[in-house]
Amino acid sequence: MPAKDFDSVTALRDAGLRVTAPRLAVLDVLRSSSHVDAETITRDVRAKLGSVSTQAIYDVLHALNSAEIVRRIDPSGAAAARYELHRHDNHHHLVCRGCEAIVDVACDEGHAPCLSPQETSGFAIDEAEIIFWGLCPSCFDVRNGEHIGDIRGTQVSTRRKYE
User: Where in the cell is it found (predicted)?
Assistant: First the structure.
């Protein structure tokens, strides 16, 4: 469901969760910003509600993630987990190795899972999560094909030139 059409109260009630000010505030933050970390969510919720503990925000995120209202994105090696409204649309993510920006990317196939393993070991597979890694345009100098800056302590450059 697109974020603009998302109804927080209905989503919470449908999931059997109480409608509380912190839950509504967290969902409001996620409706206006995608792929944000808990620190950003906490800052924005406090701007709306005043004093809210960090633990309360993590409790809300855990409850919303468990209820599949929110999706936790935790790319290996990223500084912090990110959160987005769970759209149940089988999309994946592009992650920049430089600035850790995250961008949605649609799956090639519309149904879940869009990939199937060669061996399932008896599992009933219902989802595939793919993370594509690379450099975003801001972290990659297109003029000369070399990365500007330091990526997690490793200087990275490419040999490919773009015209």
Answer: Cytoplasm
